[in-house]
């Protein structure tokens, strides 16, 4: 799945990936790939600016941590991020229900008088 | 491409070359870029490790990691808007904080000197010459524009980002307006001071006047530089 297809949903997807707990940039990428069954495979470099934007918006919090001699920037959801994720989930459920219904093959037309 | 920084331990020339390509396309102050590059480097090393653990030889693991990160131009483009927003926010906060300080120095100068500016609302300034009155209104207007533009810049780069449509040029534009507003306010203040010195040098209280002048000159220089930086970064956004 390419970046254009995901446009508008990347923020929600990133928040969802951080839902189970804090992760650093590459771990977020791996989680995106694994949780989507390999369907979501974005250029890693484009995920970092999105994370920075979410941080500026107060939806995630980032801090540097040194683990095994390598400094990594670790991201975690803020309470506002958790609320935004809930909203994103219910919006997506409504949207997908509606679109699924619309994309169903239409029942054969009923003759009208 | 020439390397600008010595490779960090653990990051080979391929990774550093990639990072240099990203860095070369990032606008703004070096400090803002350093954090981004450090984060990308650790991500690339993590990716390399992951591919090595999966059985690839080091060189191939590195190349695969770099390929995964994508076109350095695209990565830099993605970060430009973020750097612009951070710069605009910092400029706006600085202008908003320093404005009242410089303003207070000017008010102290007016109060300590015998200029005939009473510490009263402007409409009660009966004895003030029309020139001085207009100049003071102009300074106040420029300071007001600065404050509003700075507040707008701060508001649109923080929490509001969640609900606002993404317009990367909005914040640097506001910060540049605030910067040039501050330049105008300080410039007008200094012009008033020069006019006053020419008319009646004895009337000014030297210490607060000198402090206000130094503060305004410093702020003018810095605000002008910051505003131009904001315009430059604004131009780099697509």
How would you describe this protein?
- The complex is a heterodimer of chains A (113) and B (238).
- With 113 residues, chain A is of the alpha+beta class.
- Chain A has one domain (3-87): Winged helix-like DNA-binding domain superfamily/Winged helix DNA-binding domain (Arc Repressor Mutant, subunit A).
- Helix content of chain A is 54%, strand content 16%.
- Chain A is built from 5 helices and 3 strands.
- Chain A has helices spanning 3-6, 10-17, 25-35, 44-56, 79-103, and strands spanning 23-24, 60-67, 70-77.
- Chain A has a 3-stranded antiparallel β-sheet with strand order 1-3-2.
- The longest helix of chain A is centred in the last third of the chain and has 25 residues, at 79-103.
- Chain B is mainly α.
- Chain B folds into 2 domains: 13-70, no CATH class; 82-236, Butyryl-CoA Dehydrogenase, subunit A, domain 3 (Up-down Bundle), CATH 1.20.140.
- Chain B has helices spanning 13-24, 30-53, 58-69, 72-112, 130-157, 170-199, 206-236.
- The longest helix of chain B has 41 residues, at 72-112.
- The model of chain B is unreliable at 1-9 (pLDDT under 50).
- The interface between A and B is medium-sized, with 26 and 30 residues.
SSE order of chain A: HHEHHEEH
CA-based shape of chain B: elongated
Q: Which class of the largest domain in chain B in CATH terms?
A: Mainly Alpha
Terminal CA distance of chain B reads: 24 Å
- Share of β-strand residues of chain A: 15-25%
What structural class is derived from the secondary structure elements of chain B?
mainly alpha
Weakly predicted, low-confidence segments of chain A? none
The description of the largest β-sheet of chain A is: 3 strands, antiparallel
Rg of chain A computed from alpha carbons, rounded to a whole number of angstroms: 18 Å
> The biggest beta sheet of chain B, please?
none
Mean pLDDT of chain A: 88
Stated plainly, the CATH topology of chain A is called Arc Repressor Mutant, subunit A
Kindly provide the radius of gyration of chain B, computed on alpha-carbon positions and rounded to a whole number of angstroms.
25 Å
The CATH class of chain A is Mainly Alpha
Instruction: Return the structural class of chain A.
Output: alpha+beta
**How much helicity do the residues of chain B have?**
over 70%
